[in-house]
Design brief:
Layout lengths: L4 H17 L3 H7 L5 E6 L6 H4 L7 E6 L9 H13 L4 E8 L2 H7 L7 H14 L1 H4 L4 H21 L2 H8 L5 E8 L4 E4 L7 H9 L2
Parallel strand pairs: 1-2, 1-3, 3-4
Antiparallel strand pairs: 4-5
Helix pairs in contact: 5-6
The chain binds cobalt (II) ion.
The site of cobalt (II) ion has 7 residues, from helix 5.
């Protein structure tokens, strides 16, 4: 028995509308995908990758998790990066955080939440690395700043993956970007952390 019927109805209406607009759309996409972008973002329901940058299916390869983390040993994220770079030959990896992130908020208080505490530990590490910048800021400003610093840290983590380092060594054209999205007005901001070769990482990272 089908449940959540309204969703199937909405899907049918959407697929029909897309096909009416472009009769070959699904046939074309079914044969291959050529996205130029890999989006690594937060799982937050308010931050849907394609909608925010207004791109249709087929344009963005997406990985999302709580607080857009790129953990050195996370096979899930590492596999996505490898597939995107090696197989899809994408040109841009975007790490996109957002203001008002519950993951960032939870990492900054001292409550226990369960399994997720181990995941949030990575954000607490980012806070510790940047304690001199964060200490003394009012709580709301501190959350926003930590969300930005977390993106910058994850950009560095992407650049340090063996996949990205090897791609650059081979001369593959690939840039890693750090962006932040404001859920209060829908606007994206570039954190000026665009890295296109390994040597740029230290220079940019040091000047944050
Ligand atoms: Co979030």
């Amino acid at each position: 028995m089908k449940t959540l019927n309204p969703l199937f109805e909405k899907n049918l209406a959407w697929a029909t509308a897309v096909q009416q607009e472009d009769p070959d759309f699904f046939t074309r996409l079914a044969s291959q995908q050529h996205p130029e972008l890999l989006w690594i973002g937060c799982a937050d329901s308010r931050v849907p990758a394609n909608q925010i940058i207004d791109l249709p299916p087929g344009e963005v390869f997406v990985h999302r998790n709580i607080a857009n983390l790129v953990v050195h040993t996370d096979l899930n994220c590492l596999s996505v990066i490898e597939f995107a770079v090696e197989v899809l030959a994408i040109r841009h990896i975007i790490v996109c955080g957002h203001y008002g992130c519950s993951g960032i908020r939870a990492a900054m208080d001292n409550q226990e939440y369960g399994v997720i505490d181990n995941w949030l530990r990575h954000i607490k590490d980012v806070a510790r690395f940047n304690a001199d910048v964060l200490d003394g800021l009012p709580p709301e400003v501190r959350h926003d700043r930590l969300a930005e610093l977390n993106v910058i840290e994850q950009v560095a983590n992407v650049c340090n993956t063996s996949t990205v380092r090897n791609a650059w060594r081979r001369g593959h054209e690939l840039s890693v970007h750090g962006w932040i999205y404001d859920i209060r007005n829908g606007i994206l901001k570039d954190l000026d952390m665009c890295i296109s070769r390994y040597e740029q990482l230290e220079e940019k990272y040091r000047n944050v």
